Amino acid sequence: MDLGSLEGPLLVFGGPYSNLQATQAVRAQADRLGIPPERCICTGDVVAYCGDAAATVAEIRDWGCLVIAGNCEKQLAAHALDCGCGFDEGTTCDLLSAGWYAHANAQVDGPMRDWMAGLPDWIVFEHAGQKCCVIHGGARDIARFLWPVTPDELLLDELSILPKGTTRVIAGHSGIAFQKSIGPADWLNAGVIGMPAHDGRTQTRFGLIHPDGRFEICLLDYPSDQAAMTMERVGLSQGYHTSLRTGWWPSEDVLPEELRRV
What top-level class would CATH report for the domain 2-197+205-254? Predict the structure, then answer.
């Protein structure tokens, strides 16, 4: 999807993750800042770990913000039986994903799957002199985890297959917000709003791109205990519900060694 040229502030966020309370909170932030839906961009995975899959999709669609397909949207649209993250068999992420994906798969109806099937893979636009491309995980693999500690040569390889002249990549998927300069471009990750950033804080993250192009990683306060109680009420109490209260992931084995707790 090519949006042409955009002006004014942009709000970018990833991974609502079926967290209705966080989704409503980031929408409220956009309203407070006066940023219209056509300048609010979600990097995908509207549905994942938390308990309100259908309601979160409905909230996003009612808002009318821009959304690209995450791996969860791809998998649900295809009636697949797993989230498509490619977790190593037997890891915590692999074992826990079976529960939350089955719950989401049962909540999402046909019209929602049709909407997911129609989402673009990438969004491109120009803003503040930058040629921007929004992707979910990696350019080569939608479910690739790329981190602030990922070697520059791997990010440059991803950049090489994006539209020629791209100077700003906006991504999500990994759950950790960061900004990193790689050769001719900046790689921005706005983090996710549906889960904390594995730093012991319950706030989640979203990004603001100011009219001058400056990127700001922002904290999102929302009623996380309500979201956790929803997960418990629907039986999603394998571990991610505690993340909403503690700020720590139960699935630390997905992280590079440098980002794990000592």
Answer: alpha beta
